[in-house]
TrEMBL record:
Domain J: 9-70
Chain intervals with Gly residues compositional bias: 85-96
Family annotation (InterPro entries): Diphthamide-biosynth_chaperone, DnaJ_domain, J_dom_sf, NERD
PANTHER family (UniProt xref): DNAJ DOMAIN (PROKARYOTIC HEAT SHOCK PROTEIN)-RELATED, J DOMAIN-CONTAINING PROTEIN
Organism of provenance: Microbacterium aurum
NERD domain boundaries: 160-268
Positions of transmembrane segments: none
Region entry Disordered, spans: 85-116
Entries under Pfam families matching the protein: DnaJ
Recorded superkingdom: Bacteria
Protein name: Molecular chaperone DnaJ
Length: 321
């Protein structure tokens, strides 16, 4: 993935300097292909990253375009305005930039939505960004890519997570009026760090979602995610948060889903089994709508009065971070 505040540039993925000669660039690409190829013991997700990086700089024309728009290793980012976020807005977001997006003029029926996706992390990012820049320093644009790239990883991670949540919010908002969504839900008032990024209720079930962007390829091992950028135990944490909300609302979740950028996973839908009794799947963003419409394996459909009852129970206990 090359449009993340955490991602490496195409040159970094290929292991060369930005001013490397074309022949050296091509040699580096072939070397990285051999190093990451799954048939020779490499990582499949990293192999995909290498191919994607090469696509961006393979020809003089492509490389020139990449260098013009991505001189510091990211993609180009256009201003996008202020965020929406009230009920029915379907969430804010950023289409490829790092700024919250204005509310869409799309008039199609959307999921009923509550909360501000990514809002807590954006506020935290802006506060810490100003502290990092130093007292008295005016930040004309705290989302300027050149500035963001120089910030500590902890700050870039906050922004990446906010973007991930906003992207998921747009996807689930498009599911339609048969779905209800809660964003940035506090799972346990005694633990400020335990939250659910999204709760999605629809005919296919009740799902706890965690939106992540680790800035690079990830894979599953022993029931959780591992990778260079992975911190903590994302699967265990979303399951713990889901169980806390389930106890408070007296509801039963159908499953937990960790949503990741398409480029960072090998399999679009990976149902990894049950964790503490809850079905769990690792899902690429592009496949999320499919999963939420059909449900996870073994999840039963919800309809009629039961759907209304679950929504009412959640509305009574949901608190936002």
């Amino acid at each position: 993935m090359f449009d993340s505040p955490l991602s490496a540039s195409a040159y970094e993925v290929l292991g060369v300097a930005p001013d490397a000669a074309d022949d050296d660039l091509r040699k580096a690409y072939r070397l990285r292909l051999r190093q990451t190829h799954p048939d020779t013991g490499g990582d499949a997700a990293a192999f995909v990253q290498v191919q994607r990086a090469w696509e961006l700089v393979a020809t003089p024309e492509a490389r020139a375009a990449y260098d013009r728009g991505h001189g510091f290793g990211g993609t180009g980012y256009a201003p996008a305005g202020a965020a929406g976020g009230a009920e029915g807005a379907g969430g804010g977001g950023a289409d490829g930039g790092w700024r919250p997006r204005t509310r869409s003029a799309d008039t199609r029926p959307r999921a009923r939505s509550f909360g501000q996706p990514g809002g807590w992390r954006r506020e935290r990012y802006l506060t810490l960004m100003r502290e990092w820049a130093g007292r008295g320093t005016e930040l004309a644009d705290p989302y300027d890519p050149a500035l963001v790239r120089t910030a500590p990883r902890e700050l870039r991670r906050l922004l990446a997570d906010a973007l991930a949540e906003e992207t998921t919010a747009r996807i689930v908002g498009d599911l339609g009026m048969g779905y209800t969504v809660w964003h940035d839900v506090a799972a346990d008032p005694r633990d400020a760090d335990l939250k659910l990024d999204h709760i999605v209720l629809g005919p296919s079930g009740l799902y706890a979602l965690r939106s992540e962007d680790f800035g690079g390829p990830v894979r599953v091992r022993r029931g959780d995610l591992i990778g260079d950028g992975v911190t903590g135990a994302p699967v265990a944490e979303v399951v713990a948060a889901a169980r806390a909300v389930a106890r408070a609302a007296r509801v039963k979740f159908s499953g937990a889903i960790v949503v990741l950028p398409d480029d960072d996973v090998v399999t679009a839908i990976d149902e990894i089994g049950r964790v503490r009794g809850l079905a769990v799947a690792i899902v690429a963003r592009s496949a999320l709508s499919t999963v939420l419409r059909r449900g996870l394996t073994g999840a039963r459909d919800i309809g009629g009065n039961e759907l209304f009852d679950i929504r009412t129970r959640l509305q009574q206990v949901v608190r936002f971070v």
